[in-house]
What we know:
Layout: E1 2-12, E2 17-26, E3 29-34, E4 46-49, E5 54-57, E6 59-64, H1 77-86, E7 89-94, H2 105-118, E8 122-125, H3 141-147, E9 152-153, H4 162-175, E10 179-181, H5 186-189, E11 194-195, H6 198-203, E12 207-208, H7 211-227, E13 231-233, H8 239-250, E14 255-259, H9 261-265, H10 287-299, E15 304-305, H11 314-317, H12 334-343, H13 350-357, H14 359-364, E16 380-390, E17 409-419, E18 422-426
Parallel strand pairs: 1-4, 1-5, 6-7, 7-8, 9-10, 10-13, 11-12, 13-14, 14-15
Antiparallel strand pairs: 1-2, 2-3, 5-16, 16-17, 17-18
Amino acid sequence: MRILIAGGRVIDSANKRDAVLNVLIEDGRIAEIASPGAHPAPAADRVLDARGKVVCPGFVDLHVHLREPGREDMETIATGTRAAARGGFTSVCCMANTTPVNDNQSVTDFIIDRARRDGAVHVFPVGAITKGMNGEELAEIGELIGAGCVAISDDGKPVMNAELMRRALEYSTLFSVPVIQHAEDVHLTGKGVMHEGRVSTELGFKGIPAASESVIVARDLLLAELTGGHYHVAHVSTAEAIQLVREAKMKGLQVTCEAAPHHFALSDEAVRSFDTNTKMSPPLRSNRHVEAVKAGLRDGTVDAIATDHAPHTIQDKEVEFDYAANGVIGLETAFGLTMSMLVEGEVLTLTQAIAHLTSEPARIFGLAKGTLSVGADADVTIVDPAREWVVDITKSASKSRNSPFHGWKLRGQVLATIVSGKIVWELQG
């Protein structure tokens, strides 16, 4: 099938391209990119009029929880990838905290096979660092990478044992994959349920100090320097951790990190609503840390925007705040929040924002994605950066509804998502 995307502003950071162009897709790949006036438009089975819109590589999400196998009541690969498509994501990396944990080839094989059968977008599994994510013994990392895992992580839990983290980083040098750390000192976190500060004191909630994150990042960066491994900080949320990463990069260490939209769109002030959809790990931080996340995105210390899409059942959230599960869904609101908070807020240019969603995440995980190069997989997202829309969580493609952004008016909407030359999402009306 031949699809012509006509007259859109093509932003392709991987190729330093930003111009009004036609994009021709044929047999699942980018066949041609040319000026609309260069020659007569080629014949196509479908023409998408992109005039006044932006055409870019499909978004790449380094951090999602698809819950399958084991917690299909929260999400499935089918529903999670449909949510991804609606959000403009054509590739997602799914974390290992499934049931059973993705710590062996059989679970990885299951995820890949199910994604091939039911997935609307590309799914790249992330294997566990430790067996059962128990933090006691390394998983069979070589087996996981051989089966198709693109990174290793015990996300949801930190690797507290420094010796195990050292060995994992050493393995990363052998297999050229990142080690993703959920940076949290569980002893400092204790029974905390939100960021430690003025708001937690006023609400009477047990707080989680910012040092809970930065202490682990500091330790791990020393190990990364020792081993030469690729260390990646998931959902970085504190000023101190970002500064540590900044300094490590200046030293030439192989370190990368990501930020989630909720950590630049919300502060701990949102917890005053007692809405359990404002409870997450790491927690929403104070304004000082929110501004640090934005500054990290602006200067490139924070490499990528990743959703940390974490679906939960109604029963998990409709309880007292202390007992509610951590996490929010985020695939369908990520672009709108990025546009509204970062581009409209003049933190990033549109080109920089798209790079944080496309070429940068693909680069740091070594994925052959995030580009519109001729011959590349035709993974394409078409967006209207100026279009306003209201978040209606009841219409989400996800199986879960745990979002703090219901009712928000956002600027920037995904109009169409194309995966391997197939239109998997198109906004109607």
